[in-house]
Amino acid sequence: KYRSGYEQKLNYLDNVGKKRLKLNEDNVKLARKNADATTQKINSVHREMMDRFKLKYQYPDGNIQAVQDLMQSLKNMLKQLEESGVYVDSKAEYLSFDAIAKSSQPPIKDDIGPIFRQLAIIRQIVNVVSSVKLAALESLERPLRISVHEESEYTVTPVEITVVATPEKGQEFINTLCSQSNHMFVLRTIEMSAPDVTTAVAKSLEG
Predict the structure, then answer these.
(1) In Å, how far are 15, 54, 81, 124, 157 from 187, measured between CA atoms?
(2) Considering the chain, what percentage of its residues have pLDDT values greater than 90?
(3) Counting CB atoms within 10 angstroms of each CB, which of 20, 27, 65, 66 has the fewest?
(4) CA-closest candidate to residue 82, choices 71, 70, 69, 95
């Protein structure tokens, strides 16, 4: 909205120049003042969004403690899902942290921060899955592991999730996930499938 208004003012000044119309000094000052005010507003909104959606998390210094804290967090989240009635498939039993959980070696110190950053993201997703009370969590993966995509001022962490839910619960899950007040989740791709009830009924009738 603010950027659109700013562009309109620039277009107005450009048209004035093309038509060789003469602006008096007061109009020039007013146009510059409005342009400056709009720019300041855009920058203010941008800073506010960056602060609002900045991912906040903590992590331990030592790698042994990091593994212990990670495993405890996974245990707590699995318990949370269980108490919410969400079935967790074996493919999702480590909530995308399979490589670390199954490794005989602790992560290197430089990886601890990125690991706990992604743990914070997974925790938010688990919170939504459990609050909506989906039927099942079939899989949860982070294709880039602890790597990320840097896009402009945003850090993008791809996550792939497969759930089982009624159409109503599925829609509620998407709406809740994408309307988080302190995190920005963007749905890039969605695939839906449903059991072929018609064929199953037809076969039963044939029998």
Answers:
(1) 40, 18, 22, 15, 12
(2) 54
(3) 20
(4) 95
Q: Rg (Cα) of the chain, in Å, rounded?
A: 25
- Model confidence pLDDT, tens digit, residues 101-157: 999 999 999 999 999 999 999 999 999 999 999 999 999 999 999 999 888 778 889
Using a 10 angstrom Cβ sphere, with 0-12 exposed, 13-18 middle and 19 or more buried, the burial of residue 20 is: exposed
Mode of pairing for the β-strands spanning 160-164 and 87-88: unpaired
Q: Which of 82-91, 120-129, 190-199 has the lowest mean pLDDT?
A: 190-199
Q: How many residues does the chain have?
A: 207
Query: What single-letter amino acid sits at 161?
Result: I
The number of C-alpha atoms within 13 Å of 151 and in the hemisphere containing its C-beta is 5
CA 118 to chain centre: 11
pTM: 0.73
Q: What is the 3-state secondary structure (H, E, C) of the chain?
A: CHHHHHHHHHHHHHHHHHCCCCCCHHHHHHHHHHHHHHHHHHHHHHHHHHHHCCCCCCCCCCHHHHHHHHHHHHHHHHHHHHHCCCEECHHHCCCCCHHHHHCCCCCCHHHHHHHHHHHHHHHHHHHHHHHHCCCEEEEEECCCCCCCEEECCEEECCCEEEEECCHHHHHHHHHHHHCCCCCCCCCCCCCCCCCCHHHHHHHHHHC
